[in-house]
Description:
By secondary structure, the chain is mainly beta. The protein has two domains: 22-145, Sandwich (Immunoglobulin-like), CATH 2.60.40; 147-424. It contains one helix and 41 strands. The protein has a 16-stranded parallel β-sheet that branches. It has an eleven-stranded parallel β-sheet with strand order 11-14-17-20-23-26-28-30-35-38-39, with no helix packed on it. A five-stranded antiparallel β-sheet has the order 1-3-8-5-6, with no helix packed on it. The N and C termini lie far apart (103 Å).
Amino acid sequence: MICRQVFFILIIVTVFVTCRYEEEILTDDPQIAFRFSADTIFFDTLFTERGSITKRLTVVNPNKNAIRIDRIYLGKGPSSEYEIIVAGVEMNEVKDQVIFGTDSLLILIKVIIDQNDRSFPFMVADSILFSYNNRLEQVILRTWGQNANFIGDSIFLEDQVWESEIPYFLTGSILVDSLKSLTLKEGTRVYVSKGASIFVKGRLHSLGTAERRILFRHERTDKEYENIPGQWGGIYFLEGSRGNEIFFTDIRNAQYGLRVGTPDPDTIPDVIIKHARIENTSLGGIIAFTSDLLVENSLVNTSAGYVLANLAGGNYQYIHCTIANYGTFFFRQTPAVVFSNSILLDDNRHIDESLDIDFRYSIVWGDLKEEIVVEKGGISDLRIRSDNSIFKTSLFIFEGNNSYLSTETDFMQFVDIENYNFTPDALSPAVDKARMSDTKTDLFGQKRDSFPDAGAIEFLK
């Protein structure tokens, strides 16, 4: 009886050994190697003290037999700026990790960089090393680090001047108090966290140049976030603010590019905008209530809401501007532009003020059949003047003084709207349209020729 039991045990063991899967059999052949999903993991520019997104590295064993990795570790060890997560566990080193035949291992990678005294971007490098079967392989890790001036929720009670050497990173909202100013010198870069905004009761002087433009944008520098709208609040000009200047400045990916509410009894522009580019907003490019604006040589484009809205009256001049909206990046039904001399507030109060709009050598265009809405209410005046401009509308109020009206989508042509290039192409009706203009340069500071084009950007022949 005992012999019979032993016999059956031997049979079971034999079957178990002979049926063992090949992928579970370890190989120590140094000629057999892993395959990695990338030989270099590169993170986009990362601000110091701010954690990165998590990136993935897949280690594939394409062989029929299992391989044991003696060590997986970071080259700089505990002092590394990088972190790895293997099999769900965060660690700097892993030992005796087996990858079965035709199986794979997922490694997650993060990086956080300590602040230092460097002004310019600097490289932070390391590598993930794999030691197995008398082989040593590596996957390189690379990140550009950038120091910044970090500013949380703040009220500026004194005049501020921001230099361009190190960018400014707003982790919270800021308020420029009444009678105080915030001046940005040429080349200054401002990165803003989600939910944060810039409020101005005093004055904002954004003084870029053609060679060194100023930039306001969201904090994420990862490529996949590059064109996502609504990543920060925007710039708000509050009642009492006046004497504001926005020159050679780019404002991107906000909810509102500029939201202006500066009512006063005169018609002097409280915000002067020249050579500015405002794009990719979720709620509006320039939204102004009962305000006075001068906008020249500026491009306002691509919004899930209105690109331009002048509401509840005010005085607005648009000279050599391009106002454009296309549903390339999102579905939209809202026209690019709305003008109204009155508005009903949430508390049922009604504002009714005179509205004065002046377009010269400008373009209003998009991919909807009608891109302009004009709403007149109350008893106040609504005046619209146009001169040598091009409008995507059927509203005859914009006709006259050599202006074009059309509802044909292909009438106006730009070079590459998907990449935000709103330069008119050679066949565009905007070319040579502004013959009477005395504006010498365009959005980028390029010299206009003797027959200037309508819009913000000159087509260079």
